[in-house]
Amino acid sequence: MTMKRIKDKLSKPIRDFTMFELAHLKPGTIATYQIELRHFQDFLCDLFSTPTIHRKHIAMLKKYDLRRYMVNLNRKNLAPFTKLQYLLCVRKYLAWEVQNGVVAEDILEPLDRAHLPKVPEYLPRPLSLKTDLHLQDLFRKSDNPCAYTFLLLRLTGLRISELVNLPWDCVMTNAKNEHFLKVPLGKLDNERLVPLSQEAIQLIQKIKDSYPIRRGKCDRKRLIGLKGPAASQVHAYLRYQFQKLIGPLTDQGKPITFHRLRHTYATSLLTGGVSIVSIMKLLGHKRIEMSLRYAKVTPSHLRNEYLKAMSVLEKQWLDNENALHNGSSQAVEPSSIISQLRAFTDKASNLNNQQKKILLRRLARLQQTLASISFSQNFELHL
After folding, report:
1. What is the CATH number of the domain that holds 259?
2. What are phi and psi of 229, to 5 degrees?
3. What is the three-class DSSP state of 332?
4. Quick one: what percent of the chain has pLDDT higher than 70?
5. Residue 79 maps to which CATH number?
6. What is the distance between the alpha carbons of residues 102 and 97, in angstroms, rounded to a whole number?
7. Distance between CA atoms of 134 and 251, rounded to whole angstroms?
8. Is residue 313 part of a domain?
């Protein structure tokens, strides 16, 4: 069913909502809302035995009805994340109807995020080192012009949609003769610059030299030259060429996809010592949590981090041991000594409860007084 037919079949309340949201959301997001709310509308039509939904039906909704919808949705063969998105979309729509005074606010209670099903957290899917090197070698040796684009995808960590929409003049060079790939506005509405290696620069030139890679369906507005909707014909053509190149190859029992190249890019940078903040900028993420899902900490990287930390701790321990043997002094805060003295008195003194309470109170006042004093020299505790 085309998007236009879905929109035409939506009831007026839902159409009004999507038109309202269109003022500040992408058309693609609105199209997703229309698909998700169509499922909810079908449920309402069955619930009220009517071919179309009016606001009077929305006003009749009860919390129990929404729980029934959740059960109904759970019976469908949908991925856990998709089900969650459907429920969040319905909640957004009903919150809009709450603002319009159509339904009471408590109708949203069953759709509170805390009550919604948890989405499984899957591990990232970077390629193994062996598969990664094999693929890169395969792309470099291939005479298929699309192989250049797939290798560029691996070397820059681009989303496939970003690669498709790269403009012909996408390389920027600064005053220091450093080359960057300018990635235009994409999924998260942000531009970014990705540093280019010498090989990546040469790849971009090879892509230009191989134009057109598909006769009759190319133009120079895009680097890869393919014209058409990025999410349909172009993607389908690239997926076909990708599978043609790699054949039946899999990795760790999972199929190899474009997005796994992005996972591999992030993981290899993390293993090479690039900070997670820098990886976030390179991937074009707005929140560091998004990058953490992509950058898998490999066992070898985890081991290196552990050994590095243990080396630092061992050095600190040796320094303290040497200080003890050499009779050196250690600068401390006077109030911290009183704090330790209070703890020792409370634990080890042979005073009765009343005497201990009085002494601890006096030490607490002394500690408070010392903490408020500014000293011109450090107090050294000689060991």
Report:
1. 1.10.443.10
2. -55, 125
3. strand
4. 83
5. 1.10.150.130
6. 5
7. 11
8. no
CB atoms near residue 261 (< 10 Å): 25
Domain that holds residue 178: 129-295
Task: Look at the chain and report how many structural domains it folds into.
Answer: 3
| pLDDT tens, position by position, 252-286 | 888 999 989 998 998 888 878 788 888 888 888 87
Q: Are both 145 and 268 inside the same structural domain? A: yes
Task: Look at the block and give the residue holding tokens 């989303």.
Answer: 159
Q: What is the mean pLDDT of residues 146-163?
A: 91
Q: Kindly state whether residues 144 and 106 are assigned to the same domain.
A: no
SS3 labels along 267-291: HHHHHCCCCHHHHHHHHCCCCHHHH
Q: What is the pLDDT of residues 199-228, one digit of tens each?
A: 999 999 998 888 777 766 677 788 887 766
CA distance 295 to 271: 9
Q: Name the amino acid, one letter, at 179.
A: H
**Amino acid at site 246:** I
Is residue 37 helix, strand or coil?
A: helix
Q: What are phi and psi of 369, to 5 degrees?
A: -65, -45
Q: How far apart are CA 363 and CA 345, in angstroms?
A: 10
Phi/psi of residue 164, nearest 5 degrees: -60, -40
Contact 65, 47 (CB under 8 A): yes
* H or E stretch at 255: strand 254-255
Q: What is the pLDDT of residue 292?
A: 73
User: Of 242, 272, 295, which one is at a domain's C-terminal end?
Assistant: 295
Q: Are residues 106 and 248 in the same domain?
A: no
Identify the domain boundary among 280, 295, 310.
295
> 182 and 88 in one domain?
no
Instruction: Indicate whether 251 and 137 sit together in one domain.
Output: yes
pTM of this structure: 0.57
Q: What is the pLDDT of residue 5?
A: 42
